[in-house]
């Protein structure tokens, strides 16, 4: 359960029940102010309706607003069915990197909030209509309210970072938050300008964007570690996992019936998303690749989807020139590399890790 913290009060996100005695996330804060027009914040108790000012001492109390409205979009997406891969991943890493339970819960919360808020931003930026088989958050609450809610959630992660009581953890958090947004900027830039990056450029973007959350939670756990065992470098394992995770998503978006049910048929083509299969396809010069590029990047009214026939044409073109099969072959190789790296880490730590092995097996194509 994700918790948002405000001063000394907390509330679980996603729990629609009000706590006893009306206890909320927000607390009342006393502020010293004068009765002049200095811009002091005032409550609406005993207002003089003509002068619109408070004549009593209660006017010096500023009551924080309720957060049920600002949290509604966040609570919606957080409540959608999820495989919770990142939380399970943290539990697996915890076998190797022991962290005090309070710090572990804060790291889980930071990771989950960043993930959910990033999905809210992504769906707006990509004009996605579905998320996990349900309407995307902005389809129900509108883009403006969804953005406001996502930013509010993002701000609350700073409280969780503060709870870690570590300047190193704060540096790590800021560093990886910057990486996440820089990675996303490449993705958005390429799509808007119709630019096809190289495979190397694409992997760099993935390392920052998709790999960022995996790297963040591992680095935070290392910063708070109380393990007495060996301290091994997980950098290569995390890089491989982030790349595999993103490329698998690229492949499944085009080829998986489950993905079609959850997000729509070949949704990445609707979004003109730069994916590895598309890059492979564009590497083969010729009329067909120009046709595909023209279909994907021709300006369409905001939110308009590609007709089914066009998506089927693009998918068949990718299959015909080997882009889909090349992506699948890479995924199979990367999965083998991941397992090799994983077993080396098991040997180095001297601890079997059934949780992480279970994740890797479930991700296999």
From TrEMBL:
InterPro entries with a match to the protein in the record: Isoprenoid_synthase_dom_sf (IPR008949), Polyprenyl_synt (IPR000092), Polyprenyl_synt_CS (IPR033749)
Keyword Metal-binding assigned: yes
UniProt signal peptide: none
Annotated Basic and acidic residues bias: 12-29
PROSITE patterns: POLYPRENYL_SYNTHASE_1, POLYPRENYL_SYNTHASE_2
Biased composition (Low complexity): 30-44
UniProt KW Oxidoreductase keyword: no
Biological process (GO), any one: alcohol biosynthetic process
Source superkingdom: Eukaryota
Keywords assigned by UniProt, alphabetized: Isoprene biosynthesis, Lyase, Magnesium, Metal-binding, Multifunctional enzyme, Transferase
Pathway: Secondary metabolite biosynthesis; terpenoid biosynthesis
Any one GO MF annotation of this record: metal ion binding
Basic residues composition bias: residue spans: 1-10
Region (Disordered): 1-49
Name used for this protein in its record: Trans-Isoprenyl Diphosphate Synthases head-to-tail
């Amino acid at each position: 359960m994700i918790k948002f913290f405000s001063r000394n009060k907390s509330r679980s996100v996603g729990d629609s029940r009000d706590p006893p005695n009306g206890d909320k996330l927000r607390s009342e804060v006393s502020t010293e102010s004068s009765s002049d027009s200095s811009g002091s914040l005032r409550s609406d108790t005993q207002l003089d309706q003509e002068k619109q000012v408070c004549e009593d001492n209660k006017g010096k109390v500023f009551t924080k607003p309720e957060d049920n409205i600002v949290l509604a979009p966040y609570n919606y997406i957080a409540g959608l069915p999820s495989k919770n891969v990142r939380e399970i991943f943290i539990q697996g890493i915890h076998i190797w990197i022991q962290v005090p339970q309070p710090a572990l819960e804060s790291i889980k919360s930071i990771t989950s909030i960043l993930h959910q808020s990033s999905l809210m931003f992504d769906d707006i930026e990509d004009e996605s209509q579905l998320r996990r088989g349900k309407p995307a958050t902005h389809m129900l609450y509108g883009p403006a309210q969804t953005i406001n809610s996502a930013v509010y959630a993002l701000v609350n992660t700073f409280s969780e970072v503060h709870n870690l009581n570590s300047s190193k953890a704060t540096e790590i958090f800021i560093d990886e938050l910057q990486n996440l947004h820089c990675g996303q900027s490449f993705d958005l830039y390429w799509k808007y300008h119709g630019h096809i990056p190289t495979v190397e450029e694409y992997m760099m973007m993935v390392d920052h964007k998709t790999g960022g959350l995996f790297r963040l939670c591992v680095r935070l756990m290392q910063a708070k570690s109380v393990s007495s065992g060996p301290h091994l470098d997980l950098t290569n394992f995390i890089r491989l996992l982030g790349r595999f995770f993103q490329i698998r998503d690229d492949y499944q978006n085009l080829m998986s019936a489950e993905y079609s049910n959850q997000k729509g048929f070949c949704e990445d083509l609707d979004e003109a998303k730069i994916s590895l299969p598309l890059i492979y396809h564009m590497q083969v010069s010729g009329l067909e690749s120009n046709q595909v590029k023209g279909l994907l990047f021709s300006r369409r009214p905001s939110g308009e989807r590609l007709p089914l026939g066009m998506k089927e044409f693009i998918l068949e073109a990718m299959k015909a020139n080997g882009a889909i099969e090349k992506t699948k072959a890479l995924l199979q190789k990367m999965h083998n590399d991941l397992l090799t790296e994983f077993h080396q880490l098991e040997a180095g730590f001297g601890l079997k890790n059934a949780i992480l092995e279970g994740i890797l097996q479930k991700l296999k194509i």
